[in-house]
Design goal:
The complex is a heterodimer of chains A (200) and B (390).
Chain A (H helix, E strand, L loop, with lengths): L8 E7 L7 H4 L4 H15 L4 E5 L5 H11 L7 E6 L9 H4 L3 E4 L5 H14 L5 E6 L2 H13 L4 E5 L4 H9 L7 H4 L3 H11 L5
Parallel strand pairs in A: 1-2, 1-5, 2-3, 3-4, 5-6
Helix pairs in contact in A: 2-3, 2-9, 5-6
Chain B lengths: L4 E7 L5 H15 L6 E4 L13 E6 L9 H9 L3 E6 L5 H4 L10 E2 L4 H13 L8 E5 L2 H17 L3 E5 L11 H8 L3 E6 L3 H5 L2 H9 L3 E6 L13 E4 L19 H36 L4 E3 L5 E4 L5 E6 L13 H10 L3 E6 L6 H11 L4 E5 L3 H8 L1
Parallel strand pairs in B: 1-2, 1-3, 3-4, 4-5, 6-7, 6-8, 8-9, 9-10, 13-14, 14-15
Antiparallel strand pairs in B: 11-12, 12-13
The chains are: A alpha/beta (200), B alpha/beta (390).
C-alpha cells in the first residue's frame, strides 16, 4: 500500500436540500450546481489529496462513480463515514469503498449523527473544508470543524445555494467572489485547493 | 428560477440590432422554443447576466476606434463566453474592434443579407438547432404509456429530437451500451417515475452515473409516490391529481392536461439550458485556466472552437465536446467545420471529459486516434499536455 500520510486532507460537507424541510435551504439550492460541484471536487481532489465525508445517499454514488472512472489505485484517498443508525438503508456503494468507517448507533438519529460528526472531525487533521448545498447539518458541521481546525481553509461554495450560501454570506471571512459567481468547478477547486497548496 | 438562453448585445450602437432580434425570435419560434426562453442583455440590464446559463455575446465594433463596454467585454472573455465580433467590413477588422478581440474570428455585418447567417451562428452557439436538442424519455409501459406518447408529441413539436426508451422490463439487467451512448449524448432525460418505475428500469447506480455525466434529469413523480432518497440529485416535478385528465392517475390510460404538458416542456427547456451551460462551461473554462497557468495564450472562436498558436507559427484547433466525442464531422455544426477547415491547422483535437464517458469508448477513441487527422484529448491533465506539446 502506498504511503499516503503526506497527502493533505479535505473534508466535504454536502447534501441536497429537501423541499419538505426548512425551505430557506431548498429555495436557494441549485441542484445542478451541487451535483457538478461534488463531481468536480472528487475529480480534482482525489488524485492529489484525501477526501473525507459522511455518506449522504445522494452524494456518495457520485463520488463512487468518479472514483471508479479515475481508474488508478486511489482507494486510499477516500474515507467514508457512516453511522450504523442507517445500517438497513446502506446502499451498495459502501461496498465499493475500501475505507468505510462505521460509527456507533445511538438511540436517536440526532445522537447517532452527532457522534459520527464528532468522530469524523476529530480523527483527522484537516487542511480544508468544502461546503456544498446542504441544510442545518452543514452549518453544524461547519461549527464543529471550525472549532477543531481553526487554521484550515474554509470554502463555502455559495453558487450552489442553500446552507453553503448562508455560510458564505454570514461568516466573517474574506471569501473570494469566485465562490459566488463561478460555476466552472474543476477550475475553481484546482485554483483554491491545489494551486494554493502552500496556503493550506 | 428559469434558466434562459442569453444573447448579449454590447459594444457600439448598431442599426441592425432590431433586425437581428426579430430574426432570432422568428427562428427560435420555428424551432418550437418559446420566446420567453430567450433573454436579450444589453449594457442597461447587464446585471441580469448569469454565468450558469448559455450565452452568446455580439460585440458591435466601431469605425472611429472608440469602443464601448470594454469592461463588460473583458469580464465575458474571462468567463470564456462565446463572443462574435461584428464589423462593417472584415478588411478593416482590427481598426474596428478592440484589441482583446483581434484573435477572434469576426463577422461582417454590412447589409440585411448578413443577418440570417449571423443568426444561424448564434443559434448554433446556443446549441438551439434541432439536431443538437436531444431528449430521452424513460417510462414503464404498463404504468404511463399514454403520458409518454403525449410528451413525445409535444417535445417533437418543440424542436426536440426525442428518444423514447420503450425497452420493456429488463429485470436486473444493466443498461445496454447503446442506451448509455444515447444517454451521454442527451441534453435532458425525463423519467416518468410511477410507483414501479425505478426498480424495474433504472438502478440507483444508473441514475448516479447519468448524474455524474452531468445530464439534466427531470423526474415526473406520480401522486402519492415519493422520490427515492438516492434520486434527489435529479430535479423533481411532483404531479398532483389535478395535473391529470379526469383527476385520474392510477391506470395506464391516465393522461396529463394540456396545461401540465406545457409546463413540463417549459421546465425541460430551462433544465436543458442550465445543464448545457454547465457541461460546456466546465470544459471550456478548465481549458482556459489550465492554459493560463502554464502561460499559453488561447482564443475561443464564435463557432465554439479554441485556437492556439505554437511558437513555430503553426495553429492547433481544440473542439470542446459535451457528449461522446465522435469523429470530427459527426456532430459538429456546418459553420464550425467550414471555419476549422479554413484554418488549415496542424492538428485538430476533440476535447472531452473522460469522467463522462465509458471505458469502452475511450479505448475506441484511442484506437481511432491512430487513423484520423483528428485526435481525442482528455481535459484532465491538460496543463501537462500543453507544457509538452505546445
Amino acid at each position: 500500500m502506498a504511503n499516503t500520510q503526506h497527502l493533505s486532507k479535505i473534508f466535504l460537507s454536502a447534501s441536497i436540500p429537501d423541499p419538505e424541510r426548512n425551505r430557506i435551504y431548498y429555495d436557494t439550492a441549485d441542484i445542478m450546481a451541487i451535483r457538478d460541484a461534488v463531481r468536480a471536487l472528487a475529480t480534482v481532489i482525489i488524485p492529489h489529496s484525501k477526501l473525507v465525508w459522511g455518506g449522504h445517499p445522494s452524494i456518495t454514488p457520485l463520488i463512487r462513480y468518479v472514483l471508479q472512472r479515475l481508474g488508478r489505485n486511489v482507494q486510499d484517498h477516500v474515507i467514508l463515514y457512516q453511522s450504523l443508525f442507517f445500517e438497513k438503508g446502506f446502499i451498495d456503494d459502501n461496498k465499493v469503498f475500501e475505507h468505510v468507517i462505521y460509527t456507533e448507533r445511538y438511540p436517536t438519529i440526532k445522537e447517532s449523527i452527532a457522534h459520527m460528526r464528532e468522530r469524523m472531525l476529530s480523527e483527522h487533521r484537516f487542511d480544508a473544508a468544502v461546503f456544498i448545498g446542504g441544510m442545518e447539518g452543514i452549518i453544524e458541521e461547519y461549527e464543529i470543524f471550525k472549532e477543531k481546525h481553526p487554521k484550515a481553509l474554509i470554502i463555502p461554495v455559495a453558487s450552489t445555494g442553500a446552507a453553503a450560501r448562508i455560510l458564505y454570506e454570514n461568516l466573517d471571512e474574506p471569501f473570494g467572489v469566485i465562490l459566488k459567481n463561478s460555476y466552472a468547478y474543476m477550475a475553481l477547486f484546482r485554483e483554491l485547493l491545489l494551486d494554493n497548496h502552500n496556503n493550506i | 428560477m428559469r434558466t434562459k438562453y442569453q444573447i448579449l448585445l454590447i459594444g457600439n450602437e448598431n442599426s441592425f440590432i432590431g433586425q437581428i432580434k426579430e430574426s432570432l425570435n422568428r427562428h427560435t419560434a420555428e424551432l418550437g422554443v418559446s420566446g420567453d426562453s430567450l433573454l436579450y442583455i444589453e449594457q442597461a440590464n447587464f446585471s441580469e447576466y448569469k454565468a450558469n446559463a448559455p450565452a452568446v455575446c455580439l460585440y458591435f465594433g466601431s469605425n472611429d476606434g472608440m469602443f464601448g463596454d470594454l469592461e463588460l467585454l473583458r469580464s465575458l472573455i474571462n468567463d470564456a463566453t462565446l463572443i462574435i465580433p461584428l464589423v462593417v467590413d472584415l478588411k478593416s477588422f482590427k481598426q474596428c474592434t478592440p484589441e482583446e478581440l483581434h484573435k477572434v474570428n469576426g463577422y461582417e455585418l454590412s447589409n440585411e443579407k448578413d443577418v440570417e447567417s449571423l443568426v444561424s451562428v448564434i443559434l448554433e452557439g446556443l446549441s438551439l438547432l434541432r439536431l443538437s436538442r436531444r431528449l430521452f424519455i424513460s417510462y414503464k409501459r404498463e404504468e404511463s404509456s399514454i403520458v409518454a406518447i403525449q410528451l413525445f408529441e409535444q417535445f417533437e413539436k418543440n424542436g426536440f429530437d426525442v428518444f423514447l426508451d420503450t425497452h420493456c422490463v429488463r429485470p436486473g439487467e444493466p443498461f445496454q451500451d447503446e442506451l448509455w451512448q444515447r444517454l451521454a449524448d442527451t441534453d435532458v432525460v425525463v423519467l416518468l417515475n410511477t410507483p414501479g418505475f425505478v426498480n424495474s428500469h433504472w438502478t440507483m447506480q444508473e441514475l448516479a452515473q447519468a448524474n455524474a455525466m452531468s445530464v439534466g434529469i427531470l423526474q415526473l413523480i406520480w401522486p402519492g409516490h415519493s422520490l427515492e432518497l438516492e434520486a434527489k440529485l435529479s430535479i423533481p416535478y411532483p404531479l398532483q391529481d389535478s395535473d391529470f385528465g379526469n383527476n385520474t392517475y392510477a391506470n395506464k390510460d391516465a393522461y396529463l392536461t394540456k396545461n401540465t404538458i406545457d409546463q413540463i416542456v417549459s421546465e425541460v427547456e430551462s433544465l436543458r439550458a442550465r445543464s448545457l451551460a454547465s457541461r460546456q462551461d466546465n470544459i471550456i473554462t478548465e481549458f482556459f485556466k489550465g492554459a493560463a497557468r502554464v502561460g499559453k495564450d488561447a482564443n475561443l472562436q464564435p463557432e465554439k472552437f479554441i485556437l492556439m498558436n505554437k511558437p513555430d507559427g503553426k495553429e492547433l484547433v481544440f473542439i470542446p465536446t459535451v457528449g461522446v466525442p465522435q469523429s470530427f464531422t459527426y456532430d459538429q455544426s456546418e459553420e464550425l467545420i467550414k471555419q476549422v477547415k479554413k484554418r488549415n491547422a496542424e492538428t485538430i483535437f476533440i476535447l472531452y471529459d473522460h469522467i463522462n464517458i465509458r471505458e469502452k469508448w475511450i479505448k475506441h477513441l484511442s484506437w481511432l486516434d491512430n487513423y484520423l487527422p483528428v485526435k481525442a484529448l482528455k481535459i484532465e491533465g491538460i496543463e501537462q499536455w500543453l507544457i509538452h506539446n505546445t
